[in-house]
Design a protein that fits this description.
NADP, mainly alpha, single chain, 2 strands, two-stranded antiparallel ribbon, SRD5A/TECR, 8 helices, about 250 residues
Length: about 250
C-alpha cells in the first residue's frame, strides 16, 4: 500500500505545473457548459431519477448502493489528492474540509437514511459517477495544490460570509431532506406537498439549500473551480426544482 501510495503521489507531483493549471481552468468552463446543456435538456426530459425514474434509461439499480457508489468518488478523490500534500496551509485545509464534509454526509450517511427510494437507472448512475470523479478532481486538485491564500484569509469578509452561506445551505439541505423522508406514514405511497422549514417559503427547499451551500463555498474559496461548480449546481438543481414545482 505504501508503495502504491508513493507512485500515486509521484504521478501527481510530476503532473503539477502550468499545463495542469490550464487544464483545471478548461474543466471549469466545461462544468459550466455541462450545467447549461443539462438545463436545456431538462426543459424537455425530466431528470431520470427519483419520481422520474424510468427503465428507458437502463437497468434499474437499488437506490441505496447506487447513491453511495455514485457519490463516493467526490469524497475519495479529494482525500487521495490531499494525502500527497506534505504541508498544508490552513485556509486550503479548511475549505477542502468543507467540500469533503458535504460528501461524507452525501456518500456515507444519506444513502442509509433513504426509505424505499425509487431505483436509479444505470445511465443516471453512470452520469452521476463520472460527475463526482470530475468535480472531485477539480475541487480537490485546485485547493490542495494551486490556490494560495493570504495568511489572514479566514478572517476576511468574503470567507466569513461564504462560510456562513455554506453552513446555512448545508443545514437547510439536510433538514429539508429529513422533512421529505418523513412525508409518508408507514405503508403509504405517492407524493405529498412538504410543509415546514424552508418549504414554507420555496417549493424545492432541499435544492435551494444545496444551491446556497455551493455559492457560499464559491464565495469562501474565490476560485474559478468553485464558482463553476456553484453555477453548474444552479443550472441543474434549478431545473429539477422547476419540474417539482410544476
Amino acid at each position: 500500500m505504501a508503495g502504491g501510495g508513493g507512485v500515486f503521489c509521484a504521478f501527481w507531483q510530476w503532473a503539477m505545473g502550468p499545463r495542469e493549471q490550464r487544464l483545471l481552468e478548461l474543466l471549469s468552463y466545461g462544468l459550466v457548459a455541462l450545467g447549461v446543456v443539462s438545463a436545456l435538456l431538462l426543459r424537455f426530459i425530466p431528470m431520470p431519477y427519483g419520481r422520474y425514474s424510468s427503465r428507458r434509461f437502463g437497468w434499474l439499480l437499488p437506490a441505496r448502493p447506487s447513491w453511495l457508489l455514485q457519490e463516493l468518488p467526490a469524497l475519495l478523490v479529494p482525500i487521495a489528492l490531499a494525502s500527497c500534500i506534505p504541508a498544508w496551509r490552513l485556509p486550503n485545509a479548511v475549505l477542502l474540509s468543507c467540500f469533503i464534509l458535504h460528501y461524507v454526509h452525501r456518500a456515507l450517511i444519506f444513502p442509509f437514511l433513504i426509505r424505499q427510494g425509487k431505483p436509479t437507472p444505470l445511465f443516471t448512475f453512470l452520469l452521476a459517477l463520472l460527475f463526482c470523479i470530475y468535480n472531485g478532481y477539480l475541487q480537490g486538485r485546485s485547493l490542495s495544490t494551486y490556490v494560495e491564500y493570504p495568511s489572514d484569509w479566514l478572517k476576511r469578509p468574503c470567507f466569513i460570509a461564504g462560510f456562513m452561506g455554506w453552513l446555512i445551505g448545508m443545514a437547510i439541505n439536510i433538514h429539508s431532506d429529513h422533512i421529505l423522508r418523513n412525508l409518508r406514514k408507514p405503508g403509504e405511497t405517492g407524493y405529498k406537498i412538504p410543509r415546514g422549514g424552508m418549504f414554507e417559503y420555496v417549493s424545492g427547499a432541499n435544492f435551494f439549500g444545496e444551491i446556497l451551500e455551493w455559492f457560499g463555498f464559491a464565495l469562501a474559496c474565490c476560485t474559478i473551480e468553485s464558482l463553476a461548480f456553484a453555477l453548474c449546481t444552479l443550472f441543474i438543481l434549478g431545473s429539477r426544482a422547476k419540474q417539482h414545482h410544476q
